[in-house]
Amino acid sequence: MNYIINNATIVLRDEVIQGSAHVANGVIQSVDGGNTSVPDAIDFNGDFLLPGFVELHTDNLEQEIEPRPGVFWPAPLASVAAHDNQMIGAGITTVLDAVSLGEYHDGPKRSAIMDMSIKALKNARATGVLKADHHLHLRCEYPDPKVLDMLEPHVDDPALLLVSLMDHTPGQRQWRDTAKYRQYYRSQAWNDEEFERMAEELRSTQETHADKNRARIIALCKERNIPMAGHDDTTVAHIEQAVHEGIGIAEFPTTSEAARAARAAGIRIVMGGPNVVRGGSHSGNVSAQELAADGLLDILSSDYVPSSLVAGAFILHEKLGIPLPDAVATISANPAHAVGLNDRGEIAPGRRADLVRVRRVDGVPLVLGAWCADKGKSKARARDAA
Predict the structure, then answer these.
(1) Listed residue (310, 329, 321, 296) closest to 368, CA to CA
(2) Pairing of strands 92-101, 42-43
(3) Phi and psi at residue 251, in whole multiples of 5°?
(4) I need a labelling partner for 3 at 20 to 30 A (CA). Which of 76, 83, 259, 372 fits?
């Protein structure tokens, strides 16, 4: 497909220009300042032209698979299609669908959600119905006794671009404040005695299984050159462990102390778009705006709100004074490079023509359209480059 976009405010990697872009065969051919007189060009009327957003961690698919607690939608392919529509509608042209392996309170349901998600995604990719480029992010709850049984059948899936290591044991990392943990899982309706018994059981399980499972997951990833992410790092020791293990991404550090240690170690820092938009963490952890103001944020993830990527990037620019190209890079170039997708993430000749049209309406950035290039064979390049 060949087309020209004209009269656009184009956010390049290092500057913002008024001009046009020419696309042919899914690749950006040229970007020029000033307008073109080509009659069939798409007139942006001054709207922003941004690179397609790259999402490393979205829980949105699981919400479509299980729209209410314990209620599974009977057509998983339809769930994937609905999820895909939300992604492209939010300007997300490359998606790493985050699927959880192991969960303390879900029991067998978690394995069912995982199987349904992965099978439905594979089916959707094969049938060619997806508008965005979908890959896998497997989130491994490594204290879970069954996490390796869940991971190993999928570790060679060519769609797998990221593995993260999570530990949601009450009393540490995201849930170091057990009162916050109890509030988050309030549907469990524990009394004090039940909560203490449950927490002790989870701590015992962690002590028995966490270290050996984590070591095996890391070995599997290193053997296959799969990028790895830590999750909810809280202390300098967590970052030091990640450095020793070869982990290159820190997802949602819970303290500025951990974020500073990650920056010093050259580990990319991911924070939630909802945290930026809401002005704080829903778990009571460090503010993403605070980290960004201190230069401690590299990547935004939409997490549980797809539209938070574009909103978050513009907040970084307008509220914190981060140059717009750098703010946009947190949702495009930076996440793409973090997982080796070096063919996308910026508007430049030779890059994939993953593009997004954004207009400010009453001060709110809204995605009006998105173009995703032919999905092709990006996976082989990604694994080689990671």
Answers:
(1) 310
(2) unpaired
(3) -85, 125
(4) 83
Predicted local distance difference test score (pLDDT) of residue 385: 32
CA atoms within 13 A on the CB side of 119: 9
Q: Which domains does the chain have, with CATH numbers?
A: 52-341 (3.20.20.140)
Q: Give SS3 for 347.
A: coil
Burial of 206 (0-12, 13-18, 19+ CB in 10 A): buried
Best CA proximity match to 131, nearest among 88, 77, 86: 88
pLDDT tens for residues 243-282? 999 999 999 999 999 999 999 999 999 999 999 999 988 7
Q: What single-letter amino acid sits at 51?
A: P
Residue with tokens 């509608």: 89
The answer to whether 34 touches 40, Cβ cutoff 8 Å, is no
DSSP 239-277: HHHHHHHT--EEES-SSHHHHHHHHHHT-EEEEEHHHHH
End-to-end CA separation in angstroms for the chain: 29
Tracing tokens 């809401």 back to the chain, one arrives at 278
Looking at residue 26, what is its pLDDT?
Answer: 95
